[in-house]
Predict the structure.
Amino acid sequence: MKKYALIGVALGLALLLGIALLMRGGNTARDPKLPAGADFVLQSADGPVDSKALRGKVLLVYFGYTNCPDICPASLASGGLALKALSGEERSRVKLIMISVDPERDTVKHLKEYTAFFHPEMIGATGTVDEISALAKAFGAGYIKQAARSDGSYAVDHTTSTYVIGPDGKLASVLELGAPTDKVVAAVRKLL
């Protein structure tokens, strides 16, 4: 009799889990604690970067700027190494996009030159101050422009995370600064 009671409990739990998955749309890959993220249309040297047009690809999105002295180069170098570690077929299904949090200085031409240093397929994109602010907020990214120095230069403190967007356009995970290449590659391959 106990055996049948345990089977009944197990079936009941399986049914509840199934209902819960259906209510979530069956998507178990997305952590409910993640920010919502958002679709975007930004500008690059090669034309508009439209996240909806990139559906079916895994997007690695990083918020940074070209005058960043250390964090951005380290993060983008890691992303570039991850792209190089993927096969050509895998890489064709992935886009690494750096979104500038310094649209006042980062032109699309300069962004293209800067990102190409880390990987020729990396995209540098920007928009208006308001567009970037709203997009960063949707991803849970933050940045603050510091006061200008006497020479007119300034720094922008910013979040150091890379946001992994699945082929369905939903934020799937967030990789923190220093994530090893194999972890970045594993996060991408999980979604391919």
Notes: The domain at 31-189 is CATH 3.40.30.10 (Glutaredoxin). Strands lie at 41-44, 47-50, 58-64, 94-100, 123-125, 143-145, 156-158, 162-165, 171-175. The first strand starts at residue 41 and ends at 44. The chain has a mean pLDDT of 86.
